[in-house]
Amino acid sequence: MTEPVNVAILGASGYTGAELIRLLLRHPHVRIVALTADRKADQAVGDVFAQFAGVDLPRLTTIGELEIDAVDLVFCALPHGTTQQVIADLIGRKPSLKIVDLSADFRLADPAAYEEWYGHPHQALELQQEAAFGLVELNREAIRSARLVANPGCHSTTSILPIVPLLRERLIHPDQIVITSATGMSGAGRGAKEEMLFSEVSEGVHAYGVGRHRHTAELDQEYEKAAGRAARATFTPMLLPMNRGIYATITVTLEAGATAEALHAALATAYWGEPFVQVLPFGKVPHSRHVRGSNNVQIGVIADRGPDRAIVISTLDNLVKGASGQAVQNMNLVCGFDETEGLGQFALFP
Amino acid sequence: MTEPVNVAILGASGYTGAELIRLLLRHPHVRIVALTADRKADQAVGDVFAQFAGVDLPRLTTIGELEIDAVDLVFCALPHGTTQQVIADLIGRKPSLKIVDLSADFRLADPAAYEEWYGHPHQALELQQEAAFGLVELNREAIRSARLVANPGCHSTTSILPIVPLLRERLIHPDQIVITSATGMSGAGRGAKEEMLFSEVSEGVHAYGVGRHRHTAELDQEYEKAAGRAARATFTPMLLPMNRGIYATITVTLEAGATAEALHAALATAYWGEPFVQVLPFGKVPHSRHVRGSNNVQIGVIADRGPDRAIVISTLDNLVKGASGQAVQNMNLVCGFDETEGLGQFALFP
Amino acid sequence: MTEPVNVAILGASGYTGAELIRLLLRHPHVRIVALTADRKADQAVGDVFAQFAGVDLPRLTTIGELEIDAVDLVFCALPHGTTQQVIADLIGRKPSLKIVDLSADFRLADPAAYEEWYGHPHQALELQQEAAFGLVELNREAIRSARLVANPGCHSTTSILPIVPLLRERLIHPDQIVITSATGMSGAGRGAKEEMLFSEVSEGVHAYGVGRHRHTAELDQEYEKAAGRAARATFTPMLLPMNRGIYATITVTLEAGATAEALHAALATAYWGEPFVQVLPFGKVPHSRHVRGSNNVQIGVIADRGPDRAIVISTLDNLVKGASGQAVQNMNLVCGFDETEGLGQFALFP
Amino acid sequence: MTEPVNVAILGASGYTGAELIRLLLRHPHVRIVALTADRKADQAVGDVFAQFAGVDLPRLTTIGELEIDAVDLVFCALPHGTTQQVIADLIGRKPSLKIVDLSADFRLADPAAYEEWYGHPHQALELQQEAAFGLVELNREAIRSARLVANPGCHSTTSILPIVPLLRERLIHPDQIVITSATGMSGAGRGAKEEMLFSEVSEGVHAYGVGRHRHTAELDQEYEKAAGRAARATFTPMLLPMNRGIYATITVTLEAGATAEALHAALATAYWGEPFVQVLPFGKVPHSRHVRGSNNVQIGVIADRGPDRAIVISTLDNLVKGASGQAVQNMNLVCGFDETEGLGQFALFP
């Protein structure tokens, strides 16, 4: 029998923290030994998230109280910017520690790109170089041997997975990628802001971060890697009146000779046998509700009316494959567990 | 190792059918061998419920095609009224068959009560007498040895669990029970009706079946059993713009000498150690979202401003503990499995 | 032609403030001359509420900047507690000022009741005595001659209107009134609180203020007045995942000789000819969506299965008849306009 | 005083029919003399749409019962395909009749385009040639003198208004227009279909009609007219879990020398003084909720990160400016009323 791994979750009172708890409680090889949440320290998890009422879990503590010796692996679900210092400290204290980081701090390998998109120089440059980009299906081997995995963004995961194989195969034009990526509200976190109130959001829709959303930098990085040259996506995120789900509608322009069917075939081939990526039959349109609560991605390819364009649609649950589920998938690789362990739940529909 | 049980689901294209599939696919001792759906026969499950795209499952068939010899246990998720004949036939053909019935057909032990509430004489009187009422926490031993279990209604489960211990202990007045029971839309099923369209339901609320909802008959039966005399609840169901969840607000009048705290203590005692019933601390108000997708029931007791009344609130997921989850719980008892097997998922929140 | 009344709205950046603007912009006899919002002073209304982009409206100011001489009537949409001092000051500076107050500060005529429910002595006792309770259909004449009108609470309006005629006619038992009153989220205001985030509220329901909601005091006051003796309602409010609407399900016990039909007849008689109260045919169940955005109340009476109880259901839009619409109705009376002026819009459904 | 126009609504039991009633009841120059709804004939409108309970309106009849002599103008809210025959008959019987048609039957001026998109030859070719395309802001003069106005589609109106001025000014590339157009559920009508049930739609999103939605034909027609050459838009509609609202995110490629600011200026100029079109300040993102229930369109222009593209966002209420509101606007022109008459209501937010 596999020895259980002792896990700490930093930032356990947010939605990705709660989702990690939900998943890890069903994981056969994980023991949750510490949960931190600075503003809610000393509270029971069941008081912060009543779905865990009565479950045997450590009380919330501050990060300062974390006893790192007892921990094998840390999930870091802290805000962007502050994370890099926290992780540098942790690794300084315990170099053997494994870390799966859900923030954006280690996703961009290029320090200049980081500085451009985040507005300040990176504070942990060596770790930034060391970190593996945690999009499992595209980077599995590097992750297995990584100490620090940078879990990709939810929008990024949704739009990287269906496009990278098409760029690799030179099927689509790297400069003509147009994405609208609609997300549920849980992606905006649990901070109390007027614009996230139910009454502000329900029964309506709006775009945000238009022309400048930071997940674009992750698209640039991965698209360029795949295309062998700089790519150019126009990326428009939207907020929908729903809790979970990302739904990317990607309009692509085909390279000469390519067809929508060829795009579909390339994706079907690329993800053949992948446990969490389902390429639907050609022409079939995915629905976000069919991945809700699961670690699945569903991808569809549909021909446009003219022969030179196609619409690629990709959907996942932003809290699972877009965050905590993928983080567990990364942990499974890092720890040598079966990659699907703890991630077998099917979507909750309706 | 336990021998797997071969299971058929009749009525697999409805929401309770899909929910059974979701749960049973994660159950270590179950093999799904047949799925029927007369109007969608010959379709793949993944075409009817895309959350199961790519999952290895039997194709949908008609009931007529069901090969009963290969089946150990049947979940019957068919409409009320037609079920009794179907089950009588099945048991006629294979008397050793185990059945968990999710319809209302075998819930009322009294033939007269059945005829009064359903408007026609029961067609399978012997089986009606034989059936065990499948509210596990109140009837566990009878279920263990049953061949036919009548899974209770979703509203009924929500309002029976918190009230029966109070009646047994003579803490509340049996004639002064006032219930509003608000439910999400999935309880209304997947039939295409104008009044269930998104545009008709969203951003609004209304009561239905006022003064005459059939689940009242189940309340009468179980309340009387507990009180040792006829009881009288006024029961008003409401439809809310959400998919899942039942939320019963029950106003009770205390018997002389009783207090709201005593009610809370009685419930805490009655459900001590129950894996799926959580009695919250006195005065704490449950939220339906904290049980969504799980088999849990959360119950709260709150004092009214006067000393003679209290408010008891009970919530569960109508498709899980209110239907398919409880059906699996019943199956576990009938088959001698651990009662919690396959039901360990936590609520999906947000 | 009627001379226009010059109106100021204090607290214009909240939802009731925005709703007042929406209604008053269509009112033929009103000129909006001042809008205050301390935390958003100096902003254009169109920046705070983009539905008014491009509309000619005064900029938001602080209350301190209000030029009272130019104002004939003030709508006061400020928080409870602070309002009484603000209004006392305004009336001190300009005794001829008319005021419609949407806070709870002047609703309770009894200083002891105020102190009990709000936890501190009233700061403007004379004005408290002077204020007219602004539930128009029950207090029309007093309002016409009032200088200060206390607009009733949203839950209160919903539950007072259908019950007062029944108590007056001695048709129901004053001690056996059980109310659940489900409300949309806009009633909770625009303050940024975690528990009001979309992700916390959507796809779920919960009760709040159980056994101690302050609107109960208004029920006590009006029910006692109608019954000629103290009454006793158990009142449980609930929050639903919708923006607008209150839906009160009221279970009543009939006095000897009364019938559900008699209740219906009493309500139909009481509200005959009322422009904003619609008593539906006996047995018909109201839906909140059919009053959304209008100043209407729809009331239904349904028989329970036993002869001694009935269910009375009442619904309105919490921001219109439950707040700003009723405030305009009060203004119309105070100013001698046609009572329906500016309130003719029909419900927005779907 | 203007003489009232006698109006009939054909197809009054659908959502656009109800919306016409809502608007026309507040119109000072309209008398509703007939309402048809074949499947609900003989019912009172208040039974079909309870928001009109108690309002004095004609009973629903069949089309066959329509007394055309008493009618000056017909709103035709019937299904596509059957409408052309109905209208040809009506005009045959009464050539002086004015008609505003909300179906798609007369929107395409080119018979070949009609046949291509609708799969059958047009049955009323002369009327097709005669019909004015009812997008008021772009075709006002032709509408004023028209007998038959073809109200444009909801998606079409949303995407034509912000793009036509840009094509006219040669600011954007006609072949590089990528649109995702997200719509609320009311646009899908009131027919009972499984895929429109609340439980199927809530908490999720999906695209539909990808690559082949019929509103694309209207875009082609109007874009070509504006560009002076064939244009090419890729148009992907999506269904959102909300009742009302269309939200088009349009990614455009700039012609050499053009800038995002120039696009904004062109739109601001084109719609200067228009009562129902609001071009927001440069860079500001519209929200659908700020036009809900109103006849307004709000348009924003945002620069992409590269200099050669921009994002144009356009939003309106699909039942108002996208259907019944624009139909009333067309009626106002046809009848010589003030264009804004009956359309002054502001958005209902929240």
List keywords for this structure.
homotetramer, 350 residues, alpha/beta, Rossmann fold, Dihydrodipicolinate Reductase, domain 2, seven-stranded parallel sheet, seven-stranded mixed sheet, 14 strands, 30% helix, 22% strand, globular
CATH homology superfamily name of the largest domain in chain A: Dihydrodipicolinate Reductase, domain 2
Give the structural class of chain A. alpha/beta
Q: Hey, which two chains have the biggest interface?
A: A-D, 47 and 45 residues
Annotated CATH architecture of the largest domain in chain A: 2-Layer Sandwich
Spatial sequence of strands, sheet with the most strands of chain A:
3-2-1-4-5-7-6
Q: Indicate the proportion of strand residues of chain A.
A: 15-25%
Helix content of chain A: 25-40%
User: Rg of chain A from C-alpha positions?
Assistant: 20 Å
Assign the CATH class of the largest domain in chain A.
Alpha Beta
* CATH topological fold name of the largest domain in chain A: Dihydrodipicolinate Reductase, domain 2
The profile of the biggest β sheet of chain A is:
7 strands, parallel
Domains of chain A (count): 2
Distance between the termini of chain A: 37 Å
Please report the total strand number of chain A as a whole number. 14
Q: Give the overall shape of chain A, derived from the CA principal axes.
A: globular
Q: Could you report the average pLDDT of chain A, rounded to the nearest whole number?
A: 97
Number of helices of chain A: 12
Oligomeric organization of the protein chains: homotetramer
Query: What is the N-to-C succession of helices and strands of chain A?
Result: EHEHEEHEHHEHEHHEHEHEEHEEEH
Low-confidence region ranges of chain A: none
